[in-house]
Design brief:
The chain is an alpha/beta fold and 487 residues long. It folds into 2 domains: 94 residues, Double Stranded RNA Binding Domain; 324 residues, tm_1862 like domain (pyruvate-formate lyase- activating enzyme, Alpha-Beta Horseshoe). The chain is 43% helix and 20% strand. It is built from 18 helices and 18 strands. It has a 9-stranded mixed sheet, sandwiched between helices. Strands 2-1-3-4-5 form a 5-stranded mixed sheet, with helices on one face. The mean pLDDT is 92.
Length: 487
């Protein structure tokens, strides 16, 4: 796709908009018009935004008068140019995205900010009539805004959460872009990785105490933490218990994401250290789809793992599902949602398939088309309606780039079982101290909005080989809190 920008420099926003319709299209930008197929001319002339799209042998045109909505006139021009380009693509593809031209990852945070500056009615009107967000997604945003607000209000200036990364999985899923390694290829690294992870946890705990930080939530994710043996899990969780003050912790989560890694012995270890929440993630309740995406477990194993967790005393279990998986149909996804409801989980997270560059599907050019996005939209609508009818309501939501249908990821829960950590991390409510390979510490300024990040090395072998440098980077936490003192 050739993007021709005439009298404007709004490349970033217009490129993002084009990728709503053509997520993997290579976009070349020029400042001269190209009157040829597979090109779009986006032009600003005085108080007018004009777009012409040449697509599949046809030409599509849209003209928008630039209204004065924001104090920033460039922002107004960018908005109406995006709307003109959007109109052209809707006409050419016969596809009207639920989220309109909105490409940001935190719609609820944007709506909250607009409400403060515009008032409730004007902010909602802006979402619907200028960002072209439809009613159902506006209502979802309002629900998420309410749920997220109740959780973020729990945080105080000295609050922090702890993230523990275990970047190993039984196999690598075809859609996965996380830095995770199959046990088959990384098994020899795991014992040494656990040793270094425990050392980093000890150092991090000392830093938290030195800066008088108060721990709110703990989240052990990955990867799949339950790829560790019972003894290895015991070692990591005991290190946390011995070094951190857990007396004020509101939530303690361990992902038991792959049902084929769940055993009674592991669950008993997890339970013995006061973990309050686990996540068992089938993604789908269709065995054929599981095979397609490279997961070695079965639907039967998912049910067995869930029931075993109940037997071990877990009364707060989340399940993750994905809409838009390859070879999944709308009927199959409906069956997945209905089967999960019969398990009676406390929360369900419904993700939309995101086609990240490093995933196996993307590398093999298994790219979903617009029809897949339309089906995925029906899937997430069904999940919303069915879960809500069963008193499992949305409480947080975020979006990712290159997601089928330009859709969203939504956390649903029964009242009182919302995941605090998920909201804290997505909203950047407070500091997250992160340990392990690929972990990112996010330092949030007390009583301010400034965020500073400290990155660990991505891969386990780097993490082990350059561990001294990781500990050295931890000094940045002290420097941050010396600069931004907690009141």
């Amino acid at each position: 796709m050739q993007l021709c920008l005439i009298n404007n420099s709004f490349r970033y926003e217009i490129e993002k908009l084009i990728r709503i319709f053509l997520p993997f299209e290579k976009i070349e930008v020029s400042e001269m018009p190209v009157f040829a197929d597979n090109s779009v001319i986006a032009e600003i002339t005085e108080n007018t935004a004009k777009a012409t799209l040449y697509f599949c042998g046809n030409a599509y045109n849209s003209v928008k008068k630039i209204e004065r909505i924001n104090q920033n006139t460039d922002k107004d021009a960018e908005l109406f140019l995006a709307l003109a380009v959007y109109d052209c693509f809707v006409s050419a593809t016969n596809y009207k995205p639920d989220w309109g031209i909105l490409t940001g990852i935190r719609p609820a945070k944007l709506l909250s900010r607009l409400k403060k500056t515009m008032g409730d009615a004007n902010a909602e009107n802006y979402f619907k009539n200028y960002l072209m967000v439809n009613d159902k997604k506006l209502n979802l945003t309002l629900e998420a805004l309410k749920g997220e607000g109740e959780i973020t209000s729990l945080s105080k200036p000295d609050s922090f959460s702890l993230y523990i990364s275990v970047p190993f999985c039984p196999t690598r899923c075809s859609y996965c872009s996380f830095v995770s390694h199959s046990v088959e290829h990384a098994e020899k690294l795991i014992p040494q990785y656990v040793d270094y992870l425990c050392k980093e946890l000890e150092v991090t705990a000392k830093i938290a105490k030195l800066n008088n930080l108060r721990l709110e939530t703990v989240y052990m994710g990955g990867g799949t933490p339950t790829t560790l043996s019972p003894l290895q899990l015991h070692k990591v969780l005991k290190t946390v218990a011995d070094n951190f003050d857990l007396s004020g912790v509101r939530e303690y989560t361990v992902e038991a994401g792959r049902p084929d890694t769940v055993t009674k012995e592991k669950l008993e270890v997890i339970k013995s250290f006061g973990v309050t929440r686990i996540s068992i993630n089938p993604q789908t309740m269709n065995d054929e789809v599981l095979k397609t995406i490279g997961r070695k477990h079965t639907v039967k194993q998912t049910v067995e793992a869930f029931n075993l967790a109940r037997e071990c005393g877990f009364n707060n279990i989340n399940t993750d599902l994905i809409a838009g998986l390859p070879n999944d149909t709308f009927e199959s996804f409906k069956n997945t949602v209905n089967e999960v409801i019969t398990l009676n989980p406390e929360s369900v997270t419904v993700h939309s398939l995101s086609m990240k560059r490093s995933s196996g599907m993307t590398r093999l050019n298994q790219i979903p088309d617009i029809e897949v996005g339309k089906t995925a939209s029906k899937m997430v609508d069904f999940a919303y309606n069915t879960l809500s009818q069963n008193c499992i309501h949305p409480y947080y939501m975020y979006r990712q780039s290159k997601t089928v249908g330009n859709l969203e990821n939504v956390g649903y829960s029964k009242k009182g079982y919302e995941s605090l950590y998920n909201v804290f991390i997505m909203d950047e409510t407070h500091t997250i101290l992160a340990c392990g390979a690929s972990a990112v510490t996010k330092l949030r300024q007390p009583l301010g909005d400034y965020i500073e990040r400290i990155f660990n090395y991505k891969y386990p072998y780097e993490y082990i080989n350059k561990f001294d440098e990781i500990l050295n980077r931890k000094n940045g936490i002290n420097e941050f809190y010396n600069k931004y003192l907690i009141p």
